[in-house]
Amino acid sequence: GRATPEKATITADATKMLDPCQLKPESMETERIVSVLDETIAKLEMSSLIPRVVDSLDRFAAVLGPEITNSLSEHQKLSKEMEHLLASSEQGATVRAEGQRGCLCLLEQHLKRSVRNVLRLLLANPSLCQTLKSEAWVRGSPAEGFIKAFREFRNFMLERLLSSPVEEEGKIQLSLQKTTEAITALQAELAAAVQTREQEVHQKDKMIKDLQTSMQDLAKDYKAGNQQIKQEGEKQQAEELQASQTRCARLQHDVQQLGAQLGALLLEHRASELPLRKRKRRVEMEIVNWIQKYDTDMAEKQAEYEEVHAAYTEEKAQLSLLMEKRAVLLQEYSQIEEEHRICQKKEEEALKELATKNLAATRIQALWRGYLVRSLFKPKKKKKMKKGKGK
């Protein structure tokens, strides 16, 4: 209907009364009730975003994190199972549907638990909730209408909780008075609309009568035109039938000529086909001979290959034995080399020690000889010194 001034005034007053910025809780019970309603609104908003986020899970995976992404994946699986089970229960028989009702109840419980788990994880991160609202919110959806109505219910409950019985009664009287005025205005509008409707119906009846008269005239014109078209069609049909008979005779003559040409071409082609057939048989015999020769050569090559393969297998076995022996000999050789190196080192140390001992013995002998020589010349020197003193 049309918006009247009375209805606009009622809407403005209701909006002013339900403005949450002007309503402040005054008791603990009121705060608890309002907090429960606000929490319910937040959960409704996030639960309405879950289907959109699940449909674009790859795009939101980086924002959500691994834990929430895994929970949403499980929720998506449960939702698909629920849809599949509902579709099968609708299409299946009655007995089968009764058997699936228990599975449906169990799956519904799992789905509810999954939704609670996802909401718990999302509401624990307010910044993530704000990001999802700005990116995944669908305007004009049924969920948004329900959430809007629930917000109005929350404001209405807050206004009721903050109003005293006297204020409530006064507001009810005021609302009844405004409602009565609005009803009166609407009744006047209804009467005017009914009168306008009757005038429109009268005009439509007159228009219908005029249309019926014009339809009768059209029917008469249609019959006359149909008769004329029928006569013209019969005349045209006779002309086309005569032309068709003439064209059929001409086509029949062309068919006879083409049949004679076809017979002559067949005879000519059969005459040229005979040498081609002989050549084909000769080529087929050559192909058979080449195939037999190929089979014989391949059999010889296969026998030769088997002999070579057997010799190769035997040589490979001998080679493996020789490699094993070589490994053993290499190990023994390395041990011998190590022993030879140790012996050589010992011999070098012994020669070094012997050279040191020889040098030491040479020096000792030189010192000893010098000592003996000094010992031999020392008594003679003393005797000479004593003789000189006596003189």
UniProtKB/TrEMBL annotation:
Its main location: cytoplasm. Residues 176-261, 298-339 form a coiled coil. The keyword tRNA processing does not apply. It comes from the Eukaryota. Keywords: Cell projection, Cilium, Coiled coil, Cytoplasm, Cytoskeleton, Flagellum. The keyword Nucleotide-binding does not apply. Component of the nexin-dynein regulatory complex (N-DRC). Interacts with CFAP52. Component of the nexin-dynein regulatory complex (N-DRC), a key regulator of ciliary/flagellar motility which maintains the alignment and integrity of the distal axoneme and regulates microtubule sliding in motile axonemes. This is Dynein regulatory complex protein 10.
